[in-house]
User: Fold this.
Amino acid sequence: MASISYHRPTSVAEAARLAAEDPDAKVLAGGQSVLPAMKLGLLRPSAFIDLAGLGELRGIRVDKRSLSIGAAVTHAAVAESREILAVLPALSRLAEDIGDAQVRNRGTIGGSVANNDPAADYPAAVLALDATIHTNQRAIAADAFFKGLFETDLKPAELITAIEFPVPARAAYVKFPQPASRFALVGVFVAQTGASVRVAVTGASTHVFRLTALEQELARRFVPEACSTVTVAPQGLNSDVHGSAAYRASLIPVLARRAVQAAVG
Assistant:
C-alpha cells in the first residue's frame, strides 16, 4: 500500500497552499465520507490536509437578518446551538437528524456541502435558503454552487470558510431516511422569505435541485394543500434498491406538504 502523508495546517492560507502544491491531496473537514470512498476504491489520496485544528473555521455569528456558520462547525454543534435554534430552528433540527451521534460529532457543515453527496441534508438547506458559500477566494451563491454528482463550483485549492444563511420568515425540512445510513432517500426543505418561496429536494437526483413548480404554487398560497397540486415526473430521478424513480417522485410532494405543515405550525 502506498504511503499517505498527513498535514495539520495552522491557518486556512497554509491549508490552501498545501492543497495547491499537491492536487492529489484530500482536504479533511470531518472525514466522514473519506473512508467509505477509499474502501470503494473511489479515492486514493496522496496526502491528507486536516482542517480540524483551525479555530478560524469554527465560529457561529447571528444577527437579525443572517446566520453565518464556520465551515468546521460540527453537525452536533449546529444542532445544539441556542443561537441557531433562536433564528433558524429548521437548520438545528436538520442537523439533529444527521446520521448517529458519532457522525454528528465528527462531520462538519463545510465538509458536507463541499462533498455534495446526492443524499446529504445540508445542501437542501443551503439551496432552499439561498445561502452564500464563502471561501478563501470568493463568495458563491447557492444557485451556482451545486453542479452535479459530488461536483461543486469549488476550484482546486479553494476551501469553504463559512456559509451564510439569510434568516427566513418560515422554514422546515422533512426527509424520508434510509434506515441504516440516515441519509435522505428523499428530503425536502421549504423556506419562505417575504413573498419568495424556495423548495430544495435532496436524495432524489444526482444532486440537490429546486422544484420551481412547487415554489410557484406556494408563493401563491403557503399552505400544505398547495403541494398536492404538483406532480413530479420520475424521469431523471434516482432508482436503486432503496426506491425506484417513481417512488421518489411520489414522495417529493408528500414530504413537501409535511414540511410546509411544520413551517406554518
